[in-house]
Design a protein that fits this description.
6-stranded mixed beta sheet; 11 strands; Immunoglobulin-like
């Protein structure tokens, strides 16, 4: 969501922030700043990436899918973690290069008797020789 500092201005020419003036140098054509490549690094030197949970089920077997944006590589490991209290269950599968990044979904299914109805904390992580990242925790209620 843009903030007021980066929002286009309906004011006459000559006003606005320096960023707005750089974005529209007066020729009426906005200049979009390219999205930055992963730049933060983990302690081990791997680049940090954004991991997004894109889908999940609400019953057993519990399945998730996700996307790692800004990279395109084959063979990293996607790991699903489902936790509640002292119980933590995991499943892993290979990431697959796709048109929008790396897709996670194959093998990310848990069908364990310990996975009972109720609210669970779900995270998806990705790890390869060059990249590492973990999604935000998502609370999911299983039926």
């Amino acid at each position: 969501m843009p903030n007021s500092e980066n929002s286009p201005s309906a004011s006459p020419q000559g006003s606005g922030t320096a960023h707005e003036q750089d974005n529209d140098p007066g020729d009426g054509v906005a200049r979009d700043t390219p999205a930055p490549a992963p730049s933060q690094t983990a302690q081990d030197g791997r680049a940090k990436v954004s991991v997004i949970l894109t889908r999940w089920s609400t019953s057993r077997p519990f399945e998730v899918g996700g996307l790692i944006t800004d990279i395109a590589e084959q063979g990293g490991t996607c790991t699903l973690t489902v936790a509640r209290g002292e119980t933590s269950l995991r499943a892993s599968g290979s990431g697959a290069a796709g048109p929008n990044g790396v897709n996670c979904g194959d093998g990310l299914s848990i069908d364990d008797a310990a996975l009972s109805a109720g609210t669970w904390n779900v995270t998806l992580s990705y790890s390869s020789s060059a990249y590492v990242g973990t999604s935000a925790t998502q609370e999911v209620t299983l039926s």
